[in-house]
Specification:
Elements (H helix, E strand, L loop, with lengths): L2 H7 L3 E4 L4 H10 L3 E3 L2 H9 L4 H9 L4 H26 L7 E4 L13 H16 L5 E6 L2 H13 L3 E6 L2 H16 L9 E6 L1 H10 L11 H17 L9 E5 L12 H5 L5 E4 L1 H10 L13 H10 L2 H34 L1
Parallel strand pairs: 1-2, 1-8, 2-3, 3-4, 4-5, 5-6, 6-7, 7-8
């Protein structure tokens, strides 16, 4: 049994944080059962030149840079969906999903859009990009505009990946909105929502903003926060009577500190729900030779938890990470559009 296979055997669903066709094939063979996409991933793929033969006809037909951007995103996600469709069929839509991120420019802090308009656009775009797909999950951020769209999207039958979650407050707002939408559904057996809780960014934050944490607590905040939210999620959905699992995604699982082993977060959450791991993280996990067992239910000693609760202001943490996250959210989409414009000039 390989390390990734042991992770899957422990109960974890491994979703690749990429829609690179080569990585999809490689990781599917290892046991991955889903994938996610975002503008950084799409931009990196287009930048390789591997897809110029697909882009050139779009340029020749006069499509705008924005149209080409979304047509290529749609193509890459659709191709990934085809790989995981057997998983979707075998699990009756409980797994085998590929996430499609809606337009990050709706959260542009340089040219802000009113909250109600962002909500309206998320609903409109979510319905558009979900239409006709059986294993496509629509990715919406846990911002004011995004949270406002969740109930309507779930009620309309859209499977959701609520992303950019850092705190219990965001998670609960997202979860409650999705549950309201689920209660409006006639086909409740098809309701599927997942909640992407970011992990490593919290430890980057505490290194900088809470330097007086003890060695036992420093580097553990992301893990503790995510495991607590995981437990809340299990408890909430336990009595709701839905056929499909409403799960947590442990996201941002690539380590940011050189001294941390590449499998730090992968191992911490082994045993349940979903991990979205970058290709490099999965490669490092495979190279480790480790056998992964269930750890997702384990928390540090009570003294460490008490220290984290006493020293880490989660409201401030959420505010800072959301501000940073929104910048990281919109800027890659701008970069992707610039890249497409560059490709246009090269291919014309």
């Amino acid at each position: 049994m390989t390390p990734i296979q042991s992770l899957v055997a422990a109960g974890t669903k491994v979703w690749l944080d990429s829609v690179d066709p080569d990585e999809i094939a490689r990781n599917r063979a290892l046991g991955a059962t889903g994938a996610t996409s975002n503008p950084i991933i799409i931009g990196e793929l287009i930048g390789t030149g591997r897809f110029d033969a697909l882009i050139k006809p779009l340029v020749d037909k006069g499509h705008t840079d924005q149209e080409i951007c979304w047509m290529m995103t749609d193509k890459l996600v659709t191709d990934a969906q085809a790989v995981f469709r057997p998983v979707s069929q075998q699990t009756q839509c409980d797994d085998g999903w590929v996430s499609f991120e809606l337009d990050p420019l709706l959260e542009d802090t340089v040219d802000p859009i009113p909250n109600d308009e962002r909500t309206r656009r998320y609903v409109e775009l979510g319905k558009k990009w979900a239409a006709g797909h059986t294993n496509r999950m629509i990715k919406v951020p846990a911002t004011g505009g995004g949270l406002g769209a969740l109930e309507e999207l779930v009620a309309h039958g859209v499977a959701l990946n609520v992303t950019l979650i850092f705190s219990e407050r965001q998670y609960m707002a997202a979860r409650d909105a999705c549950w309201r939408g689920a209660q409006r559904r006639a086909d409740k057996d098809k309701v599927k929502t997942v909640y992407s809780i970011f992990v490593s960014r919290l430890d980057v934050y505490t290194d900088k903003h809470v330097p007086d944490l003890s060695p036992a607590a420093q580097g553990m905040v992301g893990i503790v926060n995510a495991k607590r939210i995981y437990a809340l999620n299990k408890q909430f959905w336990a009595d709701k009577g839905l056929k499909l699992k409403q799960e947590m995604i442990f996201a941002s699982t690539g380590t940011k500190k050189k001294e941390d082993p590449a499998w730090k977060y992968v191992e911490a959450f082994a045993g349940d729900d979903i991990e979205t791991n970058p290709p490099a993280t999965n490669a490092a996990v495979e190279a480790s030779g480790r056998t992964f067992t269930k750890h997702v239910h384990e928390l540090p000693p009570a003294a460490v938890l008490a220290e984290i609760d006493a020293k880490v202001d989660m409201t401030k943490l959420e505010d800072v990470l959301m501000a940073e996250g929104l910048s990281k959210f919109a800027d890659p989409q701008k970069g992707l559009l610039k890249l497409v414009a560059k490709k246009r000039a090269e291919l014309q």
